[in-house]
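CORE FACILITY INTAKE
Project code: CF-77B
Contact: R.S. (postdoc)
Sample description: multi-component assembly, two entities in total
Requested service: structural model of the whole complex
Turnaround: standard
Below are the sequence entries exactly as provided by the requester. Do not edit them.
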Amino acid sequence: MEVAFAALIGIFFMVAVYLMLSPHVIRILMGVVILGNAVNLLIFSNGRLTREVPPIVPDALVVAEPTIANPLPQALVLTAIVISFSFFAFLLTLAYRAYQELGTDDTDNMRIAEPADEAAPPTGY
Amino acid sequence: MAGKPTTPVDITGAMVTEAPALADWLVVAPVIICLLGGAFLLAQRKNTKIQGWTAVAILALLVASCVGLFVHVLNNGTIVMTMGRWLPPFGISFAVDVLSAVLALIGAVVAFFCAIYAVTDIETQERRYGFFPFLVLLMAGVSGAFLTGDIFNLYVWFEVLLIASFGLLILGNDKPQLDGAVKYAFLNLVATTLFLIATAYLYGLVGTLNMADIARRVAVLPDGAPINTIAALYLLAFAMKAAAFPVFFWLPASYHTPRIVVSAVFAGLLTKVGIYAFLRTLVLLMPEANAMLSDTLIWVAIATMIVGVLGALAQNDIRRIMGYLVISGIGAMLAGAALSTDLGLMGAIMYAVHSMIVMTALYMACGLMIRTAGTHDLRKLGAIYGRDPFLAAVFLILAFAAAGLPPFSGFWPKLTLVQASLAEGQGWLAFAILISGFLTTIAVGRVWAMSFWRGGPLGTPDGETVDEKTQPMVDPWDRRGLVIPLVGLTFMVIALGFLPQPFLNVAAGSAGGLLYQETYTDAVLGAQAAPGEVAPESAASDNSNTEGPMIDGTDTKAQPSGESE
């Protein structure tokens, strides 16, 4: 289970990096989404991938058996999901507005803030 | 209740049973003030008349609470407050040492002056877009990041300040802003995601998120634990946040696009949060891994200093020149962090404080120059000296400070850093610090000569000035809303330059707090035996009679948690 999971996370990271290397904003967006999910799965796998043992503390013990899945990473994933989703929503809007205003989704052509033909500073008075 | 009522559980080993002392509430006061204030301003978003001064009042309150916190920490050492009553490794802690307190204080002061500047600078339309709520919420993120003692919590504060900075950056919706924001947003999001990846691996390795607990467990990791890999991931993530070479490209692409006061806030705060996180994580939590990365870091620092200032020399837009100078300063801070000696860290911390003040003030001064001359093009600027000699004097002071010339605030950090690198035998590093100071002098000196000293735009014959009827004098008092915050920050620059001893003492205290991690871990976790002294394997196999917190970190939250919340 862990090995398959690790391979899956690896594939997610691979796809995310590949997509983010593209100059097109929409592909970068896809890459960001997949990257976010890759991280979520990574955190999730930290807490043991098991569901055989219910997370109940027996009467005789003060703390649970160590073989139960750790719920803390799941709480972390929940936080990370909320954050990455809201950022995705913002980036989606930003990308759309940028496309409307700049007329391109190719980051190589987004040169309004940093014009390609910007003048060099004066060398003398 | 999870346990049976007949067998009451002794909670003193797991929970905080006493309310914190009243003064300790100062630890969370900055965050609370900013969150409540931000929510109030958000509710008053359409009420543009009162927004500005309300934000100034909220930030004044923030400054007051940070001063209180700073004094409290100086008198009593590291202060800890834990949320939800769970004892430190389990509950989320806010832990404030001198470093946190001093950076939070300077950050609050910078934001306060920026808010005063913004009352005049930000117009009704941008107030409607929510400048002031974003500014105050940004400060919630910045203060939270400085004060927290939990690494996942640090990630959350990073995201809070990031989303607020997005809002500030695209305020106004201009084409250049959207262009700059695309690059800023994507690269910063990738950086925080890298931070999260590193944190996930770290949690997998040590099984805890509390920084003090991490420090203790990292110190006793078995050989072969991939802590260096994790440290390298953190290094990349924080280098991106701090805009270090070679991952700084988002900064010059975006910092010149928003309103000038937004640039001022960003230049003062955001990259320094990255540096702070770097110091906190690598220097405090994993000193051995940091020592291993030291050589890499020294070259990164040298490259950042030199490339940053060369970038500044190659720009024609004064706002972009300032952006590159921010990057160059980051290099100097990284140099101190790379050395990781007492003196080096002192230099880095002093440089961070100096850079927060000076870069904000320089952007404010640029805003005034642009107002006077109507352009930010170095070729078209000129003759401001004749029209506003006061601004010329202030800019010259700030330029000297940025270049590290005495007697202003930039001199002492640079001196300390050079001394620290020579003490470690890092001659090239000392050389790079000095040469970057020299090149910075040229870069800012040229801005001053071209825009203030020169008689007019490029091509004006030497010794002549442009017609004085079309270029009336500017009375600084007419623009007092903008000049007063600038003068306030300049005064701090002068004071830190002339009276460096308290500044040096505070920096030494902060550096000591980073180097001697026992002070920090003992303050958070108490001075009892470090949990690492019990090998995790043996503890995990024998948990049937463990009372209180479990040793095996991966189960840190496995206890029933319905106790009293």
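Facility notes:
- Strands of chain B lie at 79-82, 93-96.
- Confidence is low (pLDDT under 50) at residues 530-565 of chain B.
Invoice: internal transfer
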